Amino acid sequence: MTETIVEMRHITKRFPGIIANDDINLSICKGEIFALLGENGAGKSTLMSMLFGLYEPDQGEFLVRGQQVKIDSPNQAVALDIGMVHQHFQLVSNFTVTENIIMGVETSKRRLGIFPTVDLKNSEKKVAALSEQYGLEVDPRAVIEDLQISERQRVEILKMLYRNAEILIFDEPTAVLTPQEIQFLLQIIRNLRDNGKTVILITHKLDEIKQVADRCAILNRGRLIAVRDVSQTSTQEMARLMVGHDIAFTLDKKPAQFGEEILRVDSLTVENEEKYEAIRQVSFSVHRGEIYALAGVAGNGQVELADAISGLLPVKSGHIYLKQTDITQESVRARNLRGLSYIPEDRQSVGLILDFTLQDNLVLKRYFQPGFRKGQRIKLERWQSYARRLSQVYDIRSANGIQTVVRSMSGGNQQKAIIAREIDQDSDLQIYVQPTRGLDIGAITSIREKLIQERDHGKAILLISLELDEIMACADTIGVLYHGSLQTEARAGELDMETVGAYMMGAQHE
Amino acid sequence: MNTMIIDGLSYALPLLIIACGGIFSERSGVTNLALEGFLGFGAFTGSLFVALTSSWFSNGSTVPMYLAFLFAMLGGGFYALLFALLCIKFRANQVIAGVVINILSVALTGFLTSQINSSVFGEASNKFQLGVSPRWTVPGLSQIPVLGAVFTKFYPFEILIVILVIFINYLLYKTRFGMHLRAAGDNPQAVDTAGISVAKVRFTAVVIAGMLAGLGGMCYAYSISTNFSPSIYFGAGYLAIAAMIFGNWKLMPTLAACLIFGLARSGAYQLVGYLKLSSNYTNLALAIPYVLTLLLLIFFSKTNRAPRALGEIYDKSKR
Asked: Are A470 and A436 in contact (CB under 8 A)?
């Protein structure tokens, strides 16, 4: 494990307004499993995309097998025996496994001496041999659309191997898999290493790194924090390095005054669009004057939970009670009118109609109410005065006032618009999912203050966030979601950041 | 009965080759409503060649006809270049581009035919006269009851089409190009990451579509009217699209759809004659393939699956 196969020197990559990678120096040895660990947006995927030729670095250079190389396209990367399994698979759905694997590097034989014909039979044999060698069980003749996600992933891996890749990059490969499938994949990754391949694993799941990786590099906000031997490093330390040394925001926050129960979720199970149980048997309740914060790494069921409570996703089993009324089967509007506000994670596709004006977006939950219409006709003056008032009170800034098309507004002001619309409903329950994602410090602070202010007004707040410091700063009660289940639940003072971090990574409740 | 099969086939096979053009284009991911325009322009080019060279050949020679087929393919392919440029290079909306190409084809060929007739031949006509295609009968085989009609009085182009369709089947399903073409219509990103240019594949596919449709148009010019006139735009391009959709964008089912359309049409003709109805009813009979289209749509649209990336303008940066 001493021979260096990939070396990165001073790699820097800037995107407008953000430094994705800042002067990164790394060397990866031949035949090891090297993990890249970091939170969302730490710059792991960007770094590896550059190695695979999808982006070019602004500064710095790559050395592969000691040779300085310029990788400006994936084809170039493949020529250097580098392969990558993306999060979104690149497969032709109506082709067989073999056809997908050989596409672009097909071999032909001549029929009747003149007609070149793709040699499927031999390719199938070759694919079958490869899949046996690495324990990648898949039928070479199966059609992709009949395969499960985990099988499709194996096809992607075979695609790399078929092209003789020596350096295999996996971009968050377990995000789409069930726990059993994850174990299977980790075994495959070990097999690959044992066959002399070099594996680079991008992930934010500590338990997986602990299971398979030899070494790991920890990235935080584009910078390389540390490179550690996994066997010499505790999960706690990795978590601490990953989250960074930044101290959580301290907000001016009075002790909570809990009132009556507003939301009760009772053994809720929710399936996502792939019919996978994204939320399993989750129960909790939120009271007046309480900020209940749900922590968890992305993709552990947070979005599904919020969508189910707000009525966007159907519930498989269990019940949701709003102020003691069972709302499990009610429509989204009925829930809104009962007093539920929802600030969704995806503000652009769920929260707003981007090509409508600010005014029209602000009245979205009001326009049907008396006062905003006369019969079927809308009362435009009322819309305008309402939108103007909201944009003043909530300080929403835009180029053309309330007639600005929302698409052209900044992310922070888009978010303010959603929050203004939702808070102005005066709902007793407010659900916030990732309310400060992608915003600058100023907007983040003002939104967090708003949250606490609403709590002090006696609202029940459910805050779902991927950012641990946000959870620690705002929560009165903390719950941790892991693989769709509530891992633990405690008063805010009873848990410190590292403990929550450990639960987020799947540590068991002792 | 015999007439019905003979006429049905001579109508169905050109329709099939036009539909094959549609299959090439759409399986590569380019929505193609422009077949009508392609076939018209192709037939125009072929007929123009015949008109210009008629003095070179002896009366009754079949050489001009075969050359007309060749030139129709070249003309159709050339005209399809325009469509490919609009859709692939300039990323125009494929439906609108298709409609524009059709309208332009009608206008352009009509205008050019009249202009060339008056300036080159000094006559006022919107037609190019073509010779009469020979029709062949296989002795022996044609004597078989019912099936014999298949080998009776068929046009030479019918053989040409059958050979071409076998070749198309090979090209689409057995070669690297065919693989890339079908992949581009399902997941162009996958094609791109495999190091193959999606634009090139689609460009080639659309040009082939133009060539096949042009050939189909030329066949109709010989079989239906023995001249080229604006009546070539009688809707075969649209019917071919319908046949391709019922055929689920696959060759053999599309062949079946074309045969049904062809036999329905010739059958309806026979019926009008048999019932001794007035010629007014012929127009009604002509509508039968289209009515059939509607009925089939009701049954087939549920099970049908278009290529996944059909009509999707491929953008590399959106990977």
From this structure: yes
Residue A104 with chain B: CB contacts under 8 Å? 191, 194-196
Range of the domain at B172: 2-318
Mean pLDDT of B41-58: 91
**Helices A411-423 and A380-393 sit at what angle, rounded to 10 degrees?**
110
The mean of the pLDDT values for chain A is 88
CATH of the domain at B66: 1.10.3470
Top residue of A90, A96, A159 to mutate, by most chain B CBs within 10 Å, is A90
Distances (CA, A) of B60 to B49, B56, B64, B72, B223: 16, 12, 9, 20, 16
Q: How far is B177 from chain A (nearest CA, A)?
A: 10
Q: Which residues of B touch A90 (CB under 8 A)?
A: 187, 189-190, 193
pLDDT at site B267? 86
Q: What is the residue-averaged pLDDT of chain B?
A: 90
Number of domains in chain B: 1
**In CATH, what number does A4-81+166-243 get?**
3.40.50.300
User: What is the full DSSP assignment across A377-407?
Assistant: EE-HHHHHHHHHHHHHHTT---TTGGGSBGG
Write down the ipTM of this complex: 0.86
Residue-range domain boundaries for chain A: 4-81+166-243, 261-350+426-504
The CATH architecture one would assign to domain A261-350+426-504 is 3-Layer(aba) Sandwich (3.40)
Q: What is the pLDDT of residues B115-137, one digit of tens each?
A: 999 988 888 888 898 888 889 99
Interchain pair A93, B187: CB under 8 A: yes
**Chain-chain contact of A106 with B176 (C-beta, under 8 angstroms):** yes
CB of B90 within 8 Å of a chain A CB? The answer is no
Confirm or reject contact between B174 and chain A (CB < 8 A): yes
Partner-chain residue, chosen from B174, B180, B189, that has the shortest CB–CB distance to A90 = B189
pLDDT score for B205: 97
